Amino acid sequence: MRQSMGRVGSCYDNAVAESWFALLNAEVGTSVWATRAEARADVIRFIEVEYNRTRLRKHPEFGYLTPLETRARLRHDFTPAA
Questions:
Q1: How far apart, in Å, are the Cα atoms of 13 and each of 9, 20, 22, 25, 53?
Q2: Which residues of the chain have pLDDT under 50?
Q3: 23 C-beta neighbours (distance < 10 Å), count
Q4: Which pLDDT value is given to residue 54?
Q5: Residue 2 burial (10 A CB sphere; 0-12, 13-18, 19+)
Q6: What's the confidence (pLDDT) of residue 50?
Q7: How far apart are CA 48 and CA 46, in angstroms?
Q8: What separation, in Å, do the N-terminal and C-terminal C-alpha atoms of the chain show?
Q9: Contact (Cβ atoms closer than 8 angstroms) between residue 53 and residue 68
Q10: How far, CA to CA in Å, does 22 sit from each of 18, 25, 26, 51, 81?
């Protein structure tokens, strides 16, 4: 195995990661927390509650569902027949 690395200073090599961290920074990056645990809890809350449950996947292929709905549908599609 080889580690995948992009070029230094090229945001296009990691466009998805760059987009994700820009969104995270815009949503919770301006907050100031008293402890590291509070910061961690706020980031986890944003990911699990707001990002995964309310954000729509803006593409017709995904049916404009949230990531949580997409996973549930995928799980349902792979349920073995009895």
A1: 9, 14, 15, 20, 28
A2: none
A3: 14
A4: 72
A5: exposed
A6: 80
A7: 6
A8: 40
A9: yes
A10: 6, 5, 6, 13, 43
Residues 6+ apart with CB under 8 A from 14: 6
Length in residues, the chain: 82
CB 46 within 8 A of CB 28: yes
SS3 at position 72: helix
Q: What's the rounded Cα separation, in Å, for the pair 22 and 47?
A: 13
Largest CA distance in the chain: 53
**Residue with token string 């309310």:** 54
